[in-house]
Amino acid sequence: MPELAEVEYFRKRWDRAVGRVVTAVEIHPRARCCADLPPAATRRALVGARLLRSEAAAKQMAFVFSGGAWLGVHLGMTGSLAELRPGETPGRHDHLVLRFRGGPDVAFRDPRMFGRLRLHAGPGEPAWWTGIAPAILSPAFRASDMADFLRRRARSPIKAVLLMQERFPGIGNWMADEVLWRAGFHPKAKAGAFGPLAVRRLRATLREVCRDALRVIGKDWSDPPDSWLFNHRWDKGGRCPRTRGPLSHVTIGGRTTCWSPRRQVLGAERR
DNA sequence: ATTCTTGTTGCATC
DNA sequence: AGATGCAACAAGAA
């Protein structure tokens, strides 16, 4: 599930613990997602430490503790962060539980275990955090860098390229489709075919979708309005909210892609 | 029963 | 060498 805005939503679910001190750390040691979370070292770093702040970037989160410990969270496909009710027993998919003095108890939950937790206990900031590409909503996300990237991936369909985290941090399957639909580009358009005008349009639409998603989904998971493709993409017989025409589905780069043939025409990218 | 999945990685192939 | 495509990971939902 989690893309940029969902990650921001889940980050806030643990925020009630900011300022509190960890009293216990429970790790499910055989879960794949905990492979980079050595139980003894994690306890040493976190128990007795205070949660100072949290950040979200791309599809990742960092929880920063006093004493210099960082807990990195990647939600994968089905991961989530939850707060346990007082006295609630963790479920079978709660692979990490943090208990704080005076509450709350919070859990990392992930049935499919595609997510990943990691610990940084040294000085400074971990490379897995500082190495994340510039956020799409930051000024450092420049059109020229984007154009270079598209040129280097010239023969790939634009849909597959938008999913590459090294340049489009936080974009996932539904956001990529939403961007291409709003901008009017065919998902199979070759990345190398994008002209200067199209690159600018793509960049502006990327930023618009990130802003909208953070405002609506990142806030409290409010239902997106029906004017978005989002609400129609999985409906059987769903129709394009702008053209009222039918929506099509096709697999690109191994991912289900939803698009509106009346709106997204090959060739529009050449400008 | 079968097929699907909003993510990422590693490997084979071009 | 770098780009591209695909299976694998695992569990639950439709």
Whole-number total of structural domains: 2
Poorly predicted runs of 5 or more residues: none
Look at the structure and give the mean pLDDT.
Answer: 93
- CATH class category label of the largest domain: Mainly Alpha
Spatial shape: elongated
Major sheet size, sense and barrel closure: 4 strands, antiparallel
Per DSSP, the total helix count is 7
Distance between the termini: 34 Å
Helix-strand sequence: HEHEEEEEEEHHHHHEE
What is the strand content? Answer: 15-25%
Reported by name, the CATH topology of the largest domain is: Helicase, Ruva Protein, domain 3
Structural class: alpha+beta
Radius of gyration: 20 Å
Task: Tell me roughly what share of residues is in helical segments.
Answer: 25-40%
* CATH architecture name of the largest domain: Orthogonal Bundle
Summarize the structure.
This protein is α+β, with helices and mostly antiparallel strands. It is 27% helix and 21% strand.
Written description of the protein model:
By secondary structure, this protein is an alpha+beta fold. It folds into two domains: 4-130, MutM-like, N-terminal (N-terminal domain of MutM-like DNA repair proteins, Alpha-Beta Barrel); 143-270, Helicase, Ruva Protein, domain 3. The chain contains seven helices and ten strands. The strands form three sheets. It has a four-stranded antiparallel β-sheet with strand order 1-6-7-5. α1 (4-13) runs parallel beside α7 and α6 packs across α7. The longest helix is centred in the C-terminal third of the chain and has 25 residues, at 196-220. It is elongated, with a radius of gyration of 20 Å. The protein binds a DNA duplex (14 and 14 nucleotides) through α6.
